[in-house]
Amino acid sequence: MIKAAILGYGTVGSGVYSVLESNKRLINERAGQEIEVKYVLDLRDFPDDPVEKVLTHDFEDIINDPEVKIVVEVMGGINPAFDFTRRCLEEGKNVCTSNKELVAEHGLELMKTARENDVNYFFEASCGGGIPIIRALNDCLTADDIDEITGILNGTTNYILTEMTEKGTGFSKVLKSAQELGYAERDPSADIDAFDPARKIAILASIVFGSSVDYKDIYTEGIRKISAEDIKYATTLGYAIKLLATAKRTPDGVMAYVAPFLVDPTHPLFPINGVMNAVYVHGNMLGDAVFTGAGAGSLPTASAVVADVIDAARHDGKRAYCGWRHDEKLALASSGNVKRKYLVRISTEDEGEANKVFSPEGFLDIISLGELEEEVAFITPELTEEDFEARAKGFGKVISRIRFC
Ligand code: HSE
Fold this sequence. Notes:
36% of the residues lie in helices and 25% in strands. By secondary structure, the protein is an alpha/beta fold. The chain has three domains: 2-130 and 298-314, 3-Layer(aba) Sandwich (Rossmann fold), CATH 3.40.50.720; 136-294, Dihydrodipicolinate Reductase, domain 2 (2-Layer Sandwich); 339-404, Alpha-Beta Plaits, CATH 3.30.70.120. Helix 4 runs parallel beside helix 5, helix 5 (100-116) packs parallel to helix 10 and helix 13 packs antiparallel against helix 14 (385-395). It is elongated, with a radius of gyration of 23 Å.
């Protein structure tokens, strides 16, 4: 038997308890031994909840109990999760987490502490919720040199963009209903300003490329400015707007960015709608692979956390391999030289000037939607980011611009 503790009895923590209870027999069989939750740490009381019998308000009960070998950290945030995790690892306890903020900020350091104390720090649920992408990268795609990983890594924004597309509704209205339905936080900034998928792609890129990618170095643009009009142009062209998080190897080095893109129907991430997440991986031997599934929610996230608990039980006294292993930070290449097309919206009266600025050699194809009389859109020729930004700045009258994937 191996004893475990859960730090935090919120959405994910209660899911973890529930998964361990519901699938007890299968889980114990797969772990090769019985897993017993000895403690659940939370500041609150839960009268009439079965967890009450193992509830503690004091972390010291857990850290000082040598019987506890696996700690599930699902508190979220940096403090006190960082301190608790570090202390658990130093005490020789394995830690399994869904805490993407902590992994993105201190993952390497915590893995080092785990290594020094002969235990494991597992974080499958930190990226893509229930999708087993981290285990796939660490344990399955080990024969490949992976040169690109691109994902829809945020369920909230994918839900908002899907609703805007399907219902023709504006961003603010959809955000409000997403908040009412519990799909978006009251403070939605981490999702809609895309810090959340930036952290997730930083974690995945660190595993794929071996060295730490700092999410703060990643160009990050959220979906706050995407309007119902942008979506109308996209659907008229047969495209979908998706918030993509990418890291890829280029001749200039590894490049990473998070931004809304126009995605064509042949792209593997085009059909991913609602709160679903998906991750596209390209390997030099494998070619393409796509992993799709529930990217958030109590039980899907808990499913990934409990898979880590099982792995921790299986690896009792042994170290599991993780591709993110080099101490140095990866210096990301600038995306200024990336060439791509842009969809640009302008006022109808600025069409002539736009032609001169964005296509001096020829004429832009103008897209006009009957219901929007005051404006038109066009697709630029392939331009580098730097070139596009310089022209757009000189022109000064771009209503909106979205990159093609
Ligand atoms: N807010 C996150 C999302 C939760 O919407 O994807 C899962 O990390």
